[in-house]
Amino acid sequence: MSLSAAPRARTCVHMLPCFAVMAASQLFVYYITRLVLPHLTLHILTGPLDARIPFSPPWVTIYCLCFPFWLASGLWVASREKPRAYRACASYVLAMLLSGAVFLLWPGTMARPEPAGTDVFAAWVRLIYALDSPTNLCPSLHVLVTYFCFRCIAADTAPPRWCKGVVLVFFLLVCCSVLFVKQHALIDVPAGIAVGELALQCGRVFRLERIGFAIEKRFRKEGST
Questions:
Q1: Confidence band (pLDDT; 50, 70, 90) for 117?
Q2: What's the domain range around 203?
């Protein structure tokens, strides 16, 4: 459904609050769970099939391209009409909370190879390894967030078909990248998809956009007093 300039301008007022809530929920779950993990017993998540997946440092480029993709996609999703944006926001927060629960109930880890060589890709992987310890693996947030963005874009009528196709290809490449740079085990990929889809379906079935409207109504009421 197309929007005129004036309604579109009013719609975009909620973009930054929605995006801020989505980003804050991810950062909160990622860092808070890491404070607890040192006190928990970690489980090895890799299996025989993981050993067959080659380590390929050049895939770190796809792995890191996720960050600007999330930024652009998140801002776009948050800028949609309020019902769609509020539902996406609430569903995303739910996905993060579900992920945090799994991180704590079934904390996982994995052994990572030592990147050899002096090329830029090996150096890039070493930096990623230094910044991101092999914890908070299942579900893969890289897979979950990229899948979430893809589903929101694919379900919207505004983006052209070629755009949706590009995003789908990028999502599939991300699934490969987390395995080829040895940041995740195989089980983390379908787990990320499952948690993302579960959150989206909960948002649809339980109409989680009502949370956003309730918060908006409360702020308006307080502002009028």
A1: confident
A2: 56-224
